[in-house]
Structures are given as C-alpha cells and as structure tokens.
Amino acid sequence: MTEHYITKSHFTITLWRMLSRIADWSLSKESSNSDHRNNVISPADRTAQINQHGLGILRQFEQIPFYAEQSIRETEQVVLRQVQVPLTANQFSALVSFTYGLGEANLKRSKLLHYLNAGYYRAAANEFERWVYVGPHRLPKLVARRSAEKQLFLQNDRPS
Fold first, then answer.
1. Domain residue spans in the chain?
2. pTM surpassing 0.70?
3. How far is residue 1's CA from residue 104's CA, in Å, rounded to a whole number?
C-alpha cells in the first residue's frame, strides 16, 4: 500500500472535534445513480457551495478567517472541475474540505478521485484515511480531520 505525503505548508491544524454520527447507508457503484438521494450536485453544476457541515470541518481544522470566502469558492470550483459523477451536498462539502487542505494537485493524483470518478463511492470514502502523513509522520490531528471528512462524505443528506 502506497502512503501519501503532504507538507505542512498546505494547512494549519487547530484543535479537532469529531462529527457526532455516521450514516448507515451504503454508497456503492450500483446505488450511486439512484434517485432516492436528496441534494444531488451534478457534474455540470457550477454554482454548488460547501454546506454548513463542511464549513464546520474547515473551521475545526484550519485557521480560516470569516473573510476567506474567496479561497473557499476557488476550492469549490476545483472540486467541480475534477469530479465527473453526481455528489450529495455532504460528499461535495467533504471533498472541498479535503481539497482545501491538500490542494488541487494532490486531489488530481489521488486514488480517491480515481475511485470516485469511476463510480466507486465507498472505495473513494476509504481513501480519506490514507492522507494522514506529513513526511513519514502520521499526525493524529490529520487522522481526526480525515475521519471527519470521511464521516461527512458517507453521511446521508437530509432535506433542509
């Protein structure tokens, strides 16, 4: 298994707190195209924005001033450019948080994106936990962040 490395310059880590629950539903290639999901973001949607859950993860793990909306919007556009399959709002938001911390180049070369664009949502979700290293060091705060992003990615969206 190849591990992925990132540099400290890509992110600033703050205190973490875990998301409270994870959804039970399974995201597989077979169920990814069904119409039962709410808040679906299609690959052609260029106006999608991170939801409050995703912003919560970013604020927990990044030192993001409230006026940093432009850099978040740019990261949203990166995700919209790279992802070629429909996403729920929670999946999109988890990917924005992931990409905000790692950058577009790391998203593009990730197996997470490869699996996701192939329609393997569960396999893509499992890739979050591989991105927890700075050099050879596994950082507990990155483990917590990727766990929160994975939980959000798997969490069933509820209509507002």
1. 5-15+48-154
2. no
3. 22
Q: What angle do CA 102, 143, 6 make, to 5 degrees?
A: 30
Condensed to tens digits (0 to 9), the pLDDT of residues 37-70 reads 456 887 666 677 888 788 788 878 877 776 677 8
pLDDT tens across 27-39, in order?
Answer: 333 333 333 345 6
Query: What CATH topology corresponds to 5-15+48-154?
Result: Lysozyme (1.10.530)
> Are the C-beta atoms of 40 and 87 separated by less than 8 Å?
yes
User: What is the length of the chain?
Assistant: 160
Number of H helices, E strands in the chain: 7, 5
β-strand pairing of 40-41 with 137-138:
unpaired
Handedness of CA 112, 115, 121, 127 (dihedral sign): negative
